[in-house]
């Protein structure tokens, strides 16, 4: 069977118009983690209208649709889209901009949801494949691990599958360019917090105090040495400081008794993840001790590395090639620095995650910023990709 092309989908102008209007509607009404009641309701209603069997409630607001092909087959795959928005005040000025103060779809999940619904509609209208497809609409990707919660609620017990696939738009990348790789693709995303404590005291008499600001400052200034001197040069890892809290703005003459430094740590292999956690704690303690202060590390492992499996990457690359052509597909892309909770699904089931370029024109913006908007031109590309994944996995 020939691949589905975006041009073939664009020829159905009513279909593309409806999907674009749907994306704008979801964008206008953003819902953050585990609050995607309206969005999941739209998803469920549309899947039912397509004749697709649904299950609701996994991960609180998650929706799973199940479609069987018209031909017999034992293989089952899952396609996943995320639904949640972010706590950001939108500044796009678009006619369909967020109507919810302080919340917006600044990562493109409105587009991800729309593309998967579009693929479900086309596949339900002509299920010319052998086997079963589960459409997973997941809540709370942004920081709260909705994928993990869906799994804990029994996602793969209720809906066992042989492979699972995920898609994210690629911000500021050429429209339709597909990137993926076998093995580690995206980093583990961890949060760390170091609490430096001393006696504090009067700013005019520092000799009478144990001052935690000094070791905290030394720690921050020299933190990069963990990467340069502890992590092998052949490995990739990042440690960044994102928050510092100490003292009172109204009392600059008081040496605080407590300094809190928080940040993120990124890595791609379990051994390096362990090394970062151990080194941050040891480094903080070594800075604190000479000053008569203490340092305590709280290290929270949030999302594991996203690790694609080779066979599924091969199928995803084939589907992408059929969608946009080989010249726009990189099946051995460089490591990506971000993290994704789709990694929890890939810990349970073989699969592949790809990035598809959202466009890099003058008006494009990066994700997680107030001016980001998903590119509607990506909708037919994403729908075609999903349909071609089903063909690569379950086609006759």
Keywords:
hydrolase; Alpha-Beta Plaits; 16 strands; alpha/beta; 396 residues; Bact_exopeptidase_dim_dom; Peptidase_M20_dimer; 12 helices
Can you walk me through this structure?
By secondary structure, the protein is of the alpha/beta class. The model has no long low-confidence stretch (mean pLDDT 97). Strands 1-2-4-3-5-16-6-15 form an eight-stranded mixed β-sheet, with helices on both faces. The longest helix is centred in the C-terminal third of the chain and has 19 residues, at 270-288. The protein has helices spanning 6-10, 13-28, 37-49, 109-125, 146-152, 155-158, 213-222, 225-229, 270-288, 310-324, 342-348, 379-394; strands at residues 53-56, 63-68, 71-82, 130-138, 163-170, 178-179, 183-186, 188-197, 201-202, 237-246, 254-255, 258-267, 294-303, 306-308, 329-330, 351-357. The chain has two domains: 6-186 and 305-394, Zn peptidases (Aminopeptidase, 3-Layer(aba) Sandwich), CATH 3.40.630.10; 188-303, Alpha-Beta Plaits. α2 (13-28) packs antiparallel against α4, α4 crosses α12 and α7 runs antiparallel to α9 (270-288). It is built from twelve helices and 16 strands. 34% of the residues lie in helices and 26% in strands. Keywords: Hydrolase. This is Amidohydrolase. InterPro entries: Amidohydrolase (IPR017439), Bact_exopeptidase_dim_dom (IPR036264), Peptidase_M20 (IPR002933), Peptidase_M20_dimer (IPR011650).
């Amino acid at each position: 069977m020939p691949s589905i092309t975006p041009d073939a989908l664009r020829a159905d102008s009513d279909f593309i118009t409806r999907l674009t209007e749907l994306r704008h509607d979801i964008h206008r009404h953003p819902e953050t983690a585990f609050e995607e009641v309206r969005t999941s309701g739209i998803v469920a209603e549309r899947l039912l209208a397509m004749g697709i069997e649904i299950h609701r409630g996994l991960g609180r607001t998650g929706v799973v649709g199940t479609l069987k092909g018209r031909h017999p087959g034992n293989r089952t795959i899952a396609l996943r889209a995320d639904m949640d928005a972010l706590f950001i005040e939108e500044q796009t000025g678009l006619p369909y901009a967020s109507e919810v103060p302080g919340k917006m779809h600044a990562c493109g999940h409105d587009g991800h949801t729309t593309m998967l619904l579009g693929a479900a509609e086309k596949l339900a209208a002509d299920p010319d494949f052998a086997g079963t497809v589960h459409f997973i609409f997941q809540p709370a990707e942004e920081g709260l691990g909705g994928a993990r919660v869906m799994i804990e609620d029994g996602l793969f017990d209720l809906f066992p599958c042989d492979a699972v696939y995920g898609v994210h738009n690629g911000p500021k990348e050429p429209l339709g360019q597909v990137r993926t790789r076998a093995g580690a693709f995206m980093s583990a995303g961890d949060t760390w917090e170091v609490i430096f404590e001393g006696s504090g005291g009067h700013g005019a008499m520092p000799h009478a105090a144990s001052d935690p600001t000094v070791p905290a400052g030394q720690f921050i200034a020299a933190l990069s040495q963990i990467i340069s001197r502890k992590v092998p040069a052949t490995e990739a890892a990042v440690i960044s400081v994102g928050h510092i809290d100490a003292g009172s703005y109204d009392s600059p003459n008081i040496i605080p008794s407590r300094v809190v430094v928080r940040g993120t740590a990124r890595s791609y292999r379990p051994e390096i993840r362990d090394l970062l956690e151990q080194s941050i704690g040891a480094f903080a303690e070594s800075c604190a001790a000479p000053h008569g202060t203490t340092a305590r590390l709280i290290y929270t492992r949030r999302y594991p590395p996203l690790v694609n499996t080779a066979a599924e990457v091969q199928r995803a690359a084939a589907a992408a090639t059929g969608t946009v052509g080989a010249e726009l597909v990189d099946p051995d892309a460089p490591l990506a620095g971000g993290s994704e909770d789709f990694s929890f699904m890939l810990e349970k089931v073989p699969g592949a995650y790809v990035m598809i370029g959202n466009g890099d024109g003058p008006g494009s913006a990066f994700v997680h910023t107030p001016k980001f908007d998903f590119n509607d031109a990506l909708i037919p590309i994403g729908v075609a990709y999903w349909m071609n994944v089903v063909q690569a996995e379950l086609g006759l």
